[in-house]
Write a structure and sequence with these properties.
The complex is a heterodimer of chains A (695) and B (214). Chain A is α/β, with parallel strands linked by helices. Helices cover 42% and strands 23% of the residues of chain A. Chain B has 214 residues and is an alpha+beta fold. Chain B has a four-stranded antiparallel beta sheet with strand order 4-3-6-5. The chains are: A alpha/beta (695), B alpha+beta (214).
Chain lengths: 695, 214
């Protein structure tokens, strides 16, 4: 029935083409496809380069989370952590930005940054909360295609890309060469030490060191390095000398350097320097290594060279200019068809030590020596000291010797003419000297001293002296005046002069022929007796002074000075020996470990409600720090008292000696360190969350 | 079948009666009328482009659903540590934390319902072209349910929007929406449009044909 209407339906417009019939809505999925493909393509093209880094452990590295940083800027993320096939190492695959990856040279350094607390300070504290990250350091190159690297176990001390100079130091022991230890130049830290390593031969320790850029210009061939860690106390003729460079280097070790003579040349590349035990050794070592430009010479001695060894000094007027490099024998045919065994000593001479320029050519040095030889320069053997059989070679100008020439050949080593060495009989010399020492009026001197003491005692015991307690201050002044008095001070000097003269006599006896000896000996004997006379002339004056002093000495508590000195040392010992002081580092590190553990917990918990618990843990940790530092105020007080006593002692002692300065400095350092530790502990106690927020 | 059991004669349709209703104001016109006399709307007895639009929106929705599953939905930063979760990853994490109820809600809202919608709409669209013997009433009910339930898929998007606007505690905890949140919202919108584009009269027609052939 409705079929009748069907034709009317065809009034509708004619059927549109398929294209026109298409709905606009189709644009939506098409757009979605385009956008998706665009995003996918962008993602793919922006995808970083995959690099692999091999580590021995992957502690704290989480795939997808741990980042790679270069100069503290994130450059990539760890994608995967897996083992090497033999399970010996861990391979970390990380995707890093394309443009950065193209600058990676094959010696790029990567290491995992973790929190680290050491004598050199606290590092990586930020990783406590955020987790570890991998830091890289390299000198950017362009167009690199290297994609696999070996990671370092710890942060490299000497990072590539820093300006400065890399040198190598050689030492007998590495115990005082801590990795990261400071290198000081005039007390200022200018570089760092790397990790020490044993040489292939196993006989010494090598350590790389890096001197930062502006200061590396002070390193020349004339530079000597020495160990400054620890402290040294020397008892010498000038009194007690205490040497402490700084409290810092006392704790963490370190080395210092200085230029020991002028005329050093800039070093070219990695040079090996010897490390000396102390500054004196370094300064005296100027010629332990003869430079490359040393001139080799030979000396032929006819007599015995027993006592001469390789390394023995070659001296000129008592100044070291070279060393013996070897001794060998050779057979020389004499004119009578016989054969004579001769000893040929090889030496080398440093032209710089002769005052010649470092750039002086070998031929010029030889020409200089040839002229000197024609003017009477000869080599001879001398003993190094009257008590030692060791020999050294001395170059002496002996114009009276028969003429000789130094032949300079093209291929052979020039031979320096020698003279017959007049080596004195050691026993005879020693005997003679002892006799002379026996002859000195020591007994008499002793007798005088004893009687002086007796009179002092007598005076001190008399009633008169008891009546002077009020004059203590004046007495101290007088004491000081007396000590400073020229006469008093002159006595040791005179005595020393006399001994020096004696030594000179003995030396002269050694050196010269018998005829010359006598005159000099007489002269020196005169001088000695004159000196002794002069010295003893001073005695009446001294005795008078002393008596005067003794007259007022009743109230002077001479023992007090000694007592306070002893007490000071005891106090110092007590302070250093107290359990609090000893356990302080351990306690502190324990507390830090606790803090670390607390923070780790905090981090692992990851949720907000753990924060309170973590803060409580941090509080506990801080309490531990405070507990550990509890002894600090006491220690500070003790140190204060100690410094006070030391000051008093110095006032009493008068003269400002090196010992006083250094001791006081050390004590003040200790005092300041203890105060700082107390302060830190208090701050942490008050604001435990300062650890978290970093303030 | 249920229908054929329910009534003896097939119901008279407007099309069979030579009438056409305005889809906007509902006024009934003669079948040949091109524009609605009341509101001016173009009249068509059956929407010829309906299926095209259904498929187009469905495809777009499905394409948006792929990144919604691959990319992170939420980026949670807790004490400097960033953690990002995809839809399914979030569900698995909730299960691991023994929050089974929340896990079930999220799973239904973001996995079961969207996929169910894709399946349902595809099925309805396909059977318009190739009718099967399932009840027309059932199919109608299915379309209604799909249209009704579509908006509830937005629950995920709301959760993300709420979290990222409320949980901003500086460096302690902060929540950022991921790309997947936008993708998911688009997917839901597209599938809703797809369901709305479906001209239900086309289902009706299959019944007519069905009954005619039967």
């Amino acid at each position: 029935m409705t079929d009748l209407n069907l034709p009317e339906l065809e009034i509708d417009p004619p059927r549109r083409s398929l294209l026109r019939n298409l709905s606009v809505v189709w644009l939506v999925p098409v757009l979605a496809v385009v956008v998706s493909l665009g995003i996918a393509w962008k993602n793919f093209s922006d995808r970083g380069t995959l690099v692999t880094i091999t580590f021995s452990t992957a502690a704290g590295v989480i795939p997808g989370e741990t980042t790679l940083k270069f100069r503290e800027v994130v450059i990539g993320t760890v994608e995967n952590v897996q083992f090497t096939p033999d399970l010996q190492k861990v391979i970390i695959s990380a995707r890093i930005q394309k443009d950065v990856a193209e600058t990676l040279p094959s010696d790029s350094q990567f290491w995992v940054v973790r929190p680290n607390v050491s004598a050199n300070g606290v590092t990586g504290l930020s990783t406590v909360l955020s987790g570890v990250y991998i830091e890289g350091a390299w000198l950017p190159v362009s167009g690199s295609v290297v994609h696999s690297f070996t990671g370092l176990e710890a942060e490299p001390i000497l990072r590539p890309g820093r300006k400065g100079m890399r040198i190598t130091l050689r030492s007998k022991s590495g115990s005082l060469l801590p990795a990261g230890g400071p290198i000081l130049f005039h007390g200022v830290e200018v570089g760092k030490l790397d990790v020490p390593r044993i040489t292939d031969t196993g006989d010494s320790v090598l350590v790389d060191a890096f001197i930062n850029a502006p200061n590396d210009k002070y390193i020349t061939t004339a530079t000597r390095f020495w160990d400054t860690s620890g402290f040294s106390v020397k008892l010498g003729p000038s009194g007690v000398a205490l040497d402490v460079s700084s409290l810092g280097s006392l704790l963490r070790g370190g080395i210092a350097f200085d230029t020991t003579f002028t005329g050093g040349e800039p070093i070219k590349d990695t040079t090996v320097f010897n490390l000396f035990d102390d500054e004196d050794a370094a300064r005296q070592s100027i010629f332990t290594q003869i430079g490359d430009d040393a001139v080799p010479l030979a000396v032929i001695f006819t007599g015995s060279v027993n006592g001469l060894a390789a390394g023995a000094q070659v001296e000129y007027h008592g100044f070291r200019i070279g060393q013996v490099t070897g001794i060998n024998a050779f057979i020389e045919r004499t004119s009578g068809n016989g054969r004579v065994v001769k000893l040929r000593t090889e030496i080398e001479i440093d032209p710089q030590a002769l005052g010649l320029q470092a750039s002086t050519g070998k031929s010029e040095v030889l020409a200089f020596l040839r002229d000197a030889v024609s003017n009477g320069l000869r080599a001879r053997l001398v003993t190094t000291s009257i008590f030692s059989p060791a020999l050294k070679i001395e170059l002496a100008e002996l114009p009276d010797e028969p003429k000789a020439e130094m032949i300079i050949g093209a291929d052979s080593v020039p031979v320096l003419p020698s003279v017959v060495s007049d080596l004195p009989d050691l026993n005879a010399t020693a005997d003679g000297m002892l006799k002379r020492i026996n002859g000195l009026p020591i007994e008499e001197l002793m007798q005088q001293a004893i009687s002086l003491m007796a009179s002092i005692e007598a005076v001190a015991g008399s009633d008169d002296t008891r009546a002077a307690p009020g004059a203590l201050v004046k007495l101290l002044d007088d004491t000081r005046g007396l000590i400073n008095k020229d006469d008093t001070q002159a006595i040791p000097t005179e005595l020393r002069g006399a001994i020096v003269d004696l030594r000179k006599v003995v030396e002269d006896l050694q050196k010269r022929g018998a005829s010359e000896k006598l005159v000099t000996l007489l002269e020196n004997a005169n001088k000695v007796s004159a000196n002794l006379d002069q010295a003893s002339q001073s005695f009446p004056q001294l005795i008078k002074d002393l008596q005067e002093l003794a007259a007022k000495a009743k109230g002077l508590k001479a023992e007090e000075l000694i007592d306070s000195t002893t007490k000071l040392i005891q106090d110092a010992n007590a302070v250093i020996g107290t359990d609090g002081m000893k356990s302080l580092p351990a306690d502190l590190s324990g507390a830090l470990v606790q803090i670390q553990a607390a923070l780790k917990e905090l981090r692992e918990g990851g949720a907000v409600d753990n924060v309170n618990a973590a803060l409580a843990s941090a509080k506990d940790a801080a309490d531990s720090v405070a507990q550990a530092a509890d002894g600090l105020p006491k220690l500070t007080a003790e140190l204060d008292a100690l410094v006070g006593k030391a000051n008093a002692l110095v006032a009493a002692y008068g003269a400002k000696s090196n010992f006083n300065d250094q001791t006081l400095q050390l004590l003040r350092d200790l005092q300041a360190a203890a105060k700082a530790a107390t302060q830190l502990a208090r701050t942490i106690e008050r604001n435990p969350n300062s650890l978290l927020i970093g303030r | 079948m249920a229908h054929s059991g329910g009534s003896q004669t097939p119901p008279l349709t407007a099309r069979a009666a030579g009438l056409v209703a305005c889809p906007t104001c509902g006024r009934v016109h003669q079948a040949q009328t091109v524009h609605c006399l009341r509101c001016g709307q173009v009249l068509a007895s059956r929407d010829g482009t309906s299926m095209q639009r259904v498929w187009a929106w469905l495809v777009a929705g499905f394409m948006a659903y792929i990144p919604a599953n691959l990319y992170p939905m939420l980026e949670t930063t807790t004490l400097g540590k960033t953690q990002s979760n995809t839809l399914l990853g979030g569900v698995i994490e909730l299960v691991l934390h023994h929050s089974y109820g929340v896990a079930a809600i999220v799973f239904f809202a973001s996995i079961v319902i969207p996929i169910g919608k894709f399946v349902a709409i595809s099925y309805l669209a396909l059977q318009v072209q190739r009718p099967d013997r399932n009840s027309v009433h059932l199919k109608h009910r299915m379309l209604e349910v799909v249209e009704f339930i579509g908006r509830w898929s937005m629950i995920d998007v709301f959760v993300v929007a709420l979290l990222s606007s409320l949980v901003q505690l500086g460096s302690v905890v902060s929540v950022q929406p991921g790309i997947a949140a936008i993708s998911f919202a688009l997917s839901v919108v597209f599938t809703m449009l797809s369901a709305m584009s479906f001209d239900s009269r086309l289902i009706w027609d299959t019944d007519t044909k069905d009954s005619e052939t039967a």
